[in-house]
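Recap from last week: sequence in, structure out.
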Amino acid sequence: MDDRLPRKLAAILYADVAGYSRLTGDDEDATHRALSDSLDLISITIQSYHGKVMHYAGDAVLAMFDAVVDAVSCATKIQEQLEAQNADLPSQRRLQFRIGLNLGDVIEDRGDIYGDGVNIAARLEALAEPAGICISDAVRTALGHKLPFDYLFIGEQQVKNITEPVRAYRIVEQGTMATVLVTERESTKLQPLGKPSIAIKPFDNIGADLEQEYFADGLTWDLQIALVKLPGLFLIEGESSVQDPRQMTAQEFGSMLGVRYVLKGGVRKSGERVRVNAELMEILTGRKIWGERYDGVLEDLFTIQDEITEEIVTSMEVKLVSGEAARYRRHEIKNPTARDSMYRGEQLLYGSTKQEVQEAQHLMEEVIRLEPTSSLGYAMAAMAYWWEVRRGLGGNASSAMEQAVLLARESLRRKDTSGYPHLILAHAHLQKREFDEALVEANHGVMTRPSCNGAYTLKAIVLIYLGRPAEAIDLARYAVRLEPVNTPMYPAILASSYHGCGLHEEAISAAKESIELDNGNIDPYLVLVASSTALGHTSEAQKAIQDVLRLKPGFNLKEFAESQPYKEQEDLERLTSQLSNAGFE
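Predicted structure tokens:
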């Protein structure tokens, strides 16, 4: 006998006030009156769109609808009416709601609703901007083109007790959606996507010793590691800029990357003493939101990082999902010599030469020796060996990959906090054609690192080989937006995603963009050959073939096909047929 309680499919709306504690702290009585008026307005609007308010919880509202179209129309109407209601108020006194919408099964009991469907709606609300609306992929799919809006992908989110990450979208006015293709990388007016957006300007070395430059870079890297895992933030990387970020002002840096906030600062290290200055700047106004100076010994460094992270979360009114507040309390590397080795290794980790990467491996293994119980040394050493494989810098790729996997698993056994091992294991499983395992690890990667372009790119690659390129497009676009300056790998993956969907014009455009940024990678040229052939653009295909042969004179189609881990043979045959028709043997 089935003892499960009866369920029904419903569209769930969850709304909550942004910054309510701050507002009540400024004027409790006025805030409560404004809240009462707003809740009345919301309740009336929900009823007018055939919805039902299930309950109120302080400043939050939960409602249910039978139709997705009604729920979304209601949410947009609520925000429209609240904007009009706030029009005459100063910005600091406006009562703005975040709204999350999901479509899923609910249990209806005693006048209320329960279940994963409700929990996901509440998590999506936390990821929306003030006065914004965030919807799940289920809602997006059900809507199709029924309403005059665009839907901007804002990442995959970890939801408590839900195994698969939840794809989230922001509703934007039709025709105004920010372009996420890398062709906008030169624009100074890139639009931030969804959540509060921030970039970290590399911290300056304010000491006299130029040898301490690695230490300032290391602190910048550690702050990136802390913030990249917070789902309430949209962290954009800018280290790959063709300009030196340290020579730019915070506003120039932020405008180039299209973010609302920039964290900047400086580090002075003298012996065992360290001083850190940090400031959070709002780019549009040039206003300093927060600033602080910290003095301490090296053992205090991670505490300083945690305090900076806490201040950022508080200042930007980032709402964290359950358990996230404790996640960035990291005390991984206590030994000062180990931390010094880790910082030096990080500076070499993504080097372009075999010697640099091998030195990074040595330094990370030194971290393991000095801090054998810490997961971070194992994770970073695994990354160093994986990078050797990814860049083809070693003579024995299989041996380096085996070492990367071994170290990644050791990090996970020590309760890894970085998320890097999941990326390495996803790649390893894909190479072995272990598709289910690869997708599981890729999912873990994006859930633990929701602002990591590498995590999104790797999952996009897995989905392409799984025969699900349409799902990969949003992920590849998102990776482009997470690092909008000089990122040839991300438009290359986007090109492959488009090609897999038969969107050949788009594939050609993205492939050319990747080639413009880096003409030393054969992958976008192969997409250019295949898509040009599919469209009958023979001369363009022939030109791209010559570029492939220039980069890899011994290119062999059979060997290439054997190296491609497609799950479905027909996907591989479609690609190889196009390459063969173009003239490859």
